[in-house]
Each structure stands twice: as C-alpha cells, then as structure tokens.
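Input record (one chain):
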Amino acid sequence: MTRAGDQGVFVPLESLVEDFLSLDREGFLAEHPDAVLVFDELAIGDDPGFQTLAKKPGAQDASTRSARDRLLDRLQGDEGKKWVFPLRRGAKFASMITIGRAANNTLRLNVPSVSKFHAYFTHVAREGCWYLADANSSNGTFIDGQDLPPSHGKVPLRDGASLRFGPDVTARFHEAAALWELLQGYLNTSSGVHKLPSSSEGGGAGADPAAGG
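The corresponding structure, as predicted from the sequence alone:
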C-alpha cells in the first residue's frame, strides 16, 4: 500500500485510486486515516524537492484498469499529474506540520515563489479541526482565494477548501472520510463504471445503482 513512516512523503494520486478500488471503505480508511492535501501538478523541472513514495502496480483485470483510468480522467482532467500529501500528526514537529522551501520542513516545496518557512498546519483534537496559518511568507497563503493574515493567524479548514501557497502551488484539503465519499461519487458518475460492494457493505454506497429495485 502507500503508507509511509512519520516523514513527509508525497504519493501519486493514482496510488490512492488503486487502493480505493481494491479496498472497502473500512479498509481504505484504516490504510489512509489522515486528512490529505491533493496538489496540482508542480511545474518545477527535474528536481521537485520532495520525497515521493511510488507503489508498484498490482495485477489488475480489464474492468479495474478501466475504472482506474476513468477515475483519474475525472480527478485529473487535463491538469496533469496530482500528488497527495497526508497530514500525519507527529511528523517532524510535534505541534505543527510546516510547509516551505527549506529542507527541514515537514512538507518541502522546492519552488522559488515559496518561502523557506511559508505556512503551517495545526490540528485541534477537541474540535476535530485542522487550521492553516501563514508564517509571514513573501507571497502569501490563500484559502478559497482569501489571503491569510501574514503573521501566524490561523484559519480553520473546511473539507474541500482550495489552498494556494504563493502564486505557483495549489492544492485542495480533504478529510479522510470525505475523500472516500468524493472518490465514490466520481466512480458512480463515471459512465458505466460502478464499484461492487464488499460483503460487509451489502447494498450501501458501493452498490451498482443500476441494480436497484
């Protein structure tokens, strides 16, 4: 699967899609329990400046490959390859997940328009909420197009929020369960492709809607 240790690691979106197609909801959330950032393609040449974890594709029948390709078409479109970064608490810094160009950040983005220490995420367990704060970056941090306060003013994140770090790096925030539902929704609306329910799911969200009574 695509899990890694406590270091900040990007995984390609197609790896998550393959896990989604091979696992039921419970299995997927056990494998991917963390909220994630889904980054748009980073046009930064041959040195991305971040660690990636590639999963060797397993054997797939024709129907699984078709579902995978259609899901990726829906999720990526013409925007190029997307990358997923799990917001794994406890990685590097106990109280925050840092983003920036410097190598000591949890999430390193080796992009000239990103500051050495650009922004950071924190999680408040009692609220069940993630927050994002700008760290007085040169080019700003944005949530849904709104500029964050420039000096450590944290703002709560809603699922599906659009994020931008400077002018060149864009991403979207998803909670783990909401990511599953998003993938399920895309799968069910991809023409002719429906995920079969597992034995534990019965006729739930994964059932073929064409088989309804």
